[in-house]
Amino acid sequence: MGTFQTLRKAYGALKDSTTVGLAKVNSEYKELDIAIVKATSHVEYPPKERHVRKIFYATSAHQPRADVAYCIHTLAKRLSKTRNWIVAIKTLIVIHRILREGDPTFKDDLINYARRGRFLQISNFKDDSSALAWDCSAWVRTYALFLEEKLEYFRILRCDIEAERLTKPSPTKTQGHSRTRMLTSEELLEQLPALQQLLYRLIGCEPEGLAFSNYLIQYALALILKESFKIYCALNDGIINLVDVFFDMPKYDAVKALHIYKRAGQQAENLADFYEYCKRLDLARNFQFPTLRQPPASFLATMEEYIREAPLTATKRLEYHENDQSPQREEAKHREAEASEQPDEEVNEEEPVDKDETQPKEEEAELPPLISTDDTDDLLGLNEINPKAQELEENNALALAIVPPGGTV
User: Fold this and answer.
1) CA nearest to 91, candidates 105, 108, 101, 77
2) What structural domains and CATH numbers belong to the chain?
3) Which of 106, 184, 269, 322 lies 20 to 30 Å from 87 when distance is taken between CA atoms?
4) 256: buried, middle or exposed (CB in 10 Å: 19+, 13-18, 0-12)?
5) pLDDT tens digits, 14-56
6) Which residues contact 123 (CB under 8 A, 6 or more apart)?
């Protein structure tokens, strides 16, 4: 087996050098072809940065679109023709990095190319040359599904979660939110299921068998983990927004919203398990993981009660609100009444309140959030833009610098 692997590596190196030689002689895009071959070579090591940067440049906005299309075609051909898991995963890593770090226009070019044929659809890919190759092939197929879902999310909703920055509701406030915090109920019902499907594909990227300890797999997984924080941040803000507008929904929309809320609770549990799994990997030494928690069952019961009595159409919502005696609605009415009676300049003044009366309000305030910031000082920046959030982003960026034993960057 050792001799076979040695011969296979030698054959892979020979193929790479031959392809590079042919590109130097025959290719109109000589520099680009060489960069792609070297970035996706048979060497079991992440793509070298200088080759990736050349591909970034070739897919930038100022390049002719025909040249960008040629680059995509070459990457797609490289992915579809290979039967080597190392070449396949390095090709996917290059594509993933362009989507994350390259020119935003590349997404549209990639979508247009995918409409004309199969791309990132490698469900039949396998490398059965060894037990390691077999396990890694399974993970490569899962990785491709995640990238395909990421591209589909952008195609349908025209937004990129990874490129998003937290925004402040007003210049005078320190709290920042994802764009999902400001969506309407109709937009939430459209976008949150797509976000949840993307998170579903992400959680599925759990390496198994011999792929668990492979460095190249962990390098790609680090890219995925970096995205998971922002994806779940956007989903969490969207769920909080959904809860705020839930009791204004007609019955049909409320049923869909309840399904989204229940799935969010299940995904919080699945993502927490995924993080625990990833903490056993070498890359975990450079990552900071958030703490997730389940939504309370009592709030789900209130939502289900609303659905049983919810108006079928929007025109009857007001009638329901006038008769609504749920604890959440009564509490909201009480807060609105207090706010209307209290002068603006006295809003921030603290008044003595009986301790027993404040306890239900504290429980009420903890209902919607699914991410716990206990002992993390809100590291994800879910509620506030602060140095801790920036520190998390910078520290997690270092996760891509993990080096295999005896290796060098």
Assistant:
1) 77
2) 1-160 (1.25.40.90), 179-311 (1.20.58.150)
3) 106
4) middle
5) 555 556 555 554 557 888 999 999 999 999 999 999 999 999 9
6) 141
